[in-house]
C-alpha cells in the first residue's frame, strides 16, 4: 500500500487558527497544533508532511521556527525521520520524555471529555453474574456463532417489534458494537473509490472506517445555525443519486454530535426521494433510546424499507465496555454478512452475549433510571456554560449524550490544545468532519457527575482566556477542493 503525503494546502486547512498572539513561542504552538491533528486522527499515521522550507513559506514563518517545531515533534515521538529527511507522522512508542507543563495536568487529575459514554451502573455487574451462572450450558458447544446466539437475536428483534418494526431473529446479526457492524457493511458493499454519503458533521470513527475501506467520503452539510434543525433532504437524495453512492451512513436519532432528530414525515420524504435508488441506507441508532425531553425517537424511527439497514449497540445506553451491537437488515443481507465475517472475526464472545440478554430483557428499567440523571447533567452543564461562557451558544438537545456548542470564533483546535494544558481533554470540532470544517464548534458530553462538569467548565474558561478572541488563521486557505486524508 503506497504511503500517503499531506499536501500543504490540506495541512493549512487542518491547522486552521493554530496561532494565538501572546500564547507562547510560534514553534511550540505549531508543534502543539500538529500533535493534536495526529492524536485525534485528522492526520493519518506514516503520512509525509510538507518539507520545512515549504511549510515556512506557506505559514509566513522562518524555516528555523518550523525546524524547531518539527524537532520538538520528533523528540516527543510524533514525527519520524531526521532533520533533512522526510518527516512522517507517528505516535510515541512508550511514555517517552515529556516536559513538566505537559505532565502536571494529568498528575492533578485529567478530565476527559473526548468520549460521550456513561460508566456502568450496578445492573451491568448483576447481568454478568447471571451470565456466568448460565455460561456452563454453552460450554459443550464450539462457541462460534457467526450471527450470534439465537436468544440474543430474539431479544434484539423483540425490541424492534415493540417499536412497530416487525423483525425476526433471522434479520439480526450480533457484532462487536455498532462500529464493528459498520465496518462489516463497508467491507461487504463498498469497493475502493466508491462514494459513501453521510450527514456532516458525523461520528468521527465512521469517517475513519469509510476511509479505511477505501470509500470516497461525500459529506452533505446539516443546516447550520444556533437553532437549526432538520436535514438537507434534497441534498442527501441528490448526493446519493448523483454520485451513485454504494452506501449512505446517517445518524437520524439524537444525531452525534448535534443532538438533532429527524421527524417521521421527513424520514418518509427521504425514502420517497430515494425510491429506485441503489444506495444502501445505513441508519446508526446507537442513541435512539436516549430521549431526554419531547417526543421519543422510537416513535419516529419506525419507518422501514428493504434497503434500510439499522445499527444498534449497548455502548451508549448501557456501558462502553460491553462490546455488543447488532445489524438489522433484510435476511439476504444478514446471510451474506454472516458468511463474509469469517475472514474478519468469528463472532462476539458468548459471555458478553449472555450478559446482553439479561440487560435487553429487563423491560427498560435500567435505562429509565438513567434518563433523569442524564437530563439533570445536561441542564446543569448548559446552565454552567451560560454563566461562565455567555458568548458560547449551547442549544439544548432533546436527547443523546452531548452538546454541540458554537464558539464565538474559529478556535476549536487551539482551544483543545490549551485545554490539555489545563488538564482537560477535548475533541476538537474538526474531528467530526472533513476538510477542516467546524472550527467554530466543540462537542461537550454531559456524562460526568456535576462536580466534574463544574471543574471542566472552569478549565474551559481558563483555556478560552489563553486563546482569546483575536486568533486569526495565519494563512487564508483558498483554491479548489482539498484532498481528504
Question: Care to describe what's here?
Answer:
The chain contains 17 helices and 13 strands. Helices cover 41% and strands 11% of the residues. The longest helix has 24 residues, at 365-388. The protein has 485 residues and is an alpha/beta fold. The chain has helices spanning 8-15, 26-39, 52-59, 63-75, 100-109, 122-134, 150-162, 177-189, 204-212, 233-243, 264-273, 297-300, 331-340, 350-360, 365-388, 412-421, 450-467; strands at residues 79-80, 88-89, 111-112, 172-175, 195-200, 216-221, 247-250, 280-284, 308-313, 325-328, 402-406, 424-425, 441-445. A 7-stranded mixed sheet has the order 4-10-9-8-7-5-6, sandwiched between helices. Strands 1-2 form a two-stranded antiparallel sheet.
Straight-line N-to-C gap? 14 Å
Helix content: 40-55%
- Indicate the proportion of strand residues: 5-15%
Order of helices and strands: HHHHEEHEHHEHEHEHEHEHEEHHHEHEEH
Instruction: Please give the count of helices.
Output: 17
Strands of the widest sheet, in order across it, are 4-10-9-8-7-5-6
Assembly type of the chains comes to single chain
Structural Rg = 23 Å
Query: Ranges with pLDDT <50 over ≥5 residues?
Result: 94-107, 469-485
User: Can you give the mean pLDDT?
Assistant: 87
Shape: globular
The description of the largest β-sheet is: 7 strands, mixed
Beta-strand segment tally: 13
- Structural class determined from secondary elements: alpha/beta
Amino acid at each position: 500500500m503506497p504511503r500517503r503525503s499531506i499536501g500543504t494546502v490540506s495541512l493549512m486547512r487542518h491547522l486552521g487558527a493554530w496561532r494565538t498572539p501572546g500564547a507562547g513561542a510560534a514553534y511550540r504552538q505549531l508543534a502543539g497544533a500538529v500533535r493534536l491533528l495526529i492524536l485525534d486522527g485528522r492526520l493519518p499515521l506514516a503520512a509525509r508532511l510538507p518539507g520545512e522550507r515549504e511549510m515556512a513559506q506557506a505559514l509566513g514563518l522562518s524555516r528555523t521556527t518550523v525546524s524547531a517545531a518539527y524537532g520538538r515533534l520528533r523528540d516527543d515521538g510524533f514525527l519520524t525521520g531526521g532533520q533533512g529527511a522526510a518527516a512522517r507522522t507517528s505516535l510515541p512508542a512508550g511514555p517517552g520524555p515529556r516536559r513538566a507543563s505537559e505532565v502536571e495536568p494529568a498528575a492533578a487529575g485529567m478530565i476527559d471529555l473526548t468520549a460521550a459514554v456513561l460508566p456502568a451502573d450496578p445492573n451491568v455487574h448483576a447481568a454478568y453474574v447471571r451470565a456466568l451462572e448460565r455460561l456452563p450450558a454453552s460450554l459443550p458447544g464450539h462457541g462460534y456463532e457467526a450471527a450470534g446466539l439465537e436468544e440474543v437475536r430474539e431479544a434484539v428483534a423483540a425490541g424492534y417489534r415493540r417499536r412497530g418494526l416487525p423483525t425476526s431473529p433471522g434479520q439480526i446479526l450480533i457484532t462487536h458494537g455498532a462500529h464493528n457492524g459498520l465496518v462489516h457493511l463497508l467491507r461487504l458493499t463498498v469497493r475502493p473509490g466508491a462514494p459513501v454519503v453521510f450527514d456532516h458533521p458525523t461520528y468521527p470513527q465512521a469517517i475513519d472506517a469509510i476511509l479505511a475501506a477505501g470509500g470516497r467520503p461525500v459529506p452533505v452539510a446539516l443546516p447550520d445555525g444556533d437553532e437549526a434543525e432538520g436535514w438537507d433532504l434534497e441534498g442527501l437524495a441528490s448526493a446519493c443519486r448523483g454520485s451513485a453512492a454504494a452506501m449512505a451512513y446517517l445518524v437520524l436519532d439524537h444525531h452525534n454530535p448535534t443532538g438533532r432528530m429527524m421527524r417521521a414525515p421527513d424520514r418518509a420524504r427521504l425514502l420517497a426521494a430515494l425510491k429506485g435508488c441503489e444506495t444502501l441506507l445505513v441508519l446508526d441508532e446507537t442513541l435512539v433510546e436516549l430521549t431526554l425531553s419531547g417526543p421519543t425517537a422510537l416513535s419516529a424511527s419506525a419507518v422501514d424499507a428493504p434497503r434500510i439497514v439499522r445499527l444498534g449497540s449497548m455502548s451508549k445506553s448501557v456501558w462502553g465496555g460491553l462490546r455488543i451491537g447488532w445489524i438489522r437488515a433484510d435476511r439476504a443481507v444478514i446471510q451474506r454478512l454472516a458468511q463474509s465475517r469469517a475472514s474478519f472475526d468469528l463472532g462476539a464472545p458468548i459471555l458478553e452475549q449472555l450478559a446482553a440478554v439479561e440487560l435487553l430483557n429487563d423491560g427498560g428499567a435500567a435505562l429509565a433510571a438513567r434518563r433523569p440523571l442524564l437530563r439533570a447533567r445536561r441542564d446543569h452543564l448548559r446552565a454552567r456554560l451560560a454563566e461562565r461562557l455567555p458568548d458560547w451558544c449551547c442549544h439544548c438537545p432533546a436527547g443523546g449524550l452531548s452538546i454541540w456548542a458554537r464558539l464565538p470564533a474559529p478556535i476549536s483546535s487551539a482551544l483543545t490544545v490549551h485545554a490539555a494544558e489545563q488538564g482537560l481533554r477535548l475533541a476538537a470540532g474538526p474531528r467530526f468532519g472533513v476538510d477542516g470544517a467546524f472550527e467554530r464548534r466543540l462537542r461537550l458530553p454531559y456524562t460526568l457527575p456535576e462536580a466534574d462538569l463544574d471543574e471542566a467548565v472552569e478549565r474551559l474558561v481558563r483555556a478560552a482566556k489563553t486563546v482569546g478572541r483575536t486568533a486569526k488563521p495565519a494563512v487564508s486557505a483558498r483554491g479548489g477542493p482539498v484532498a481528504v486524508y
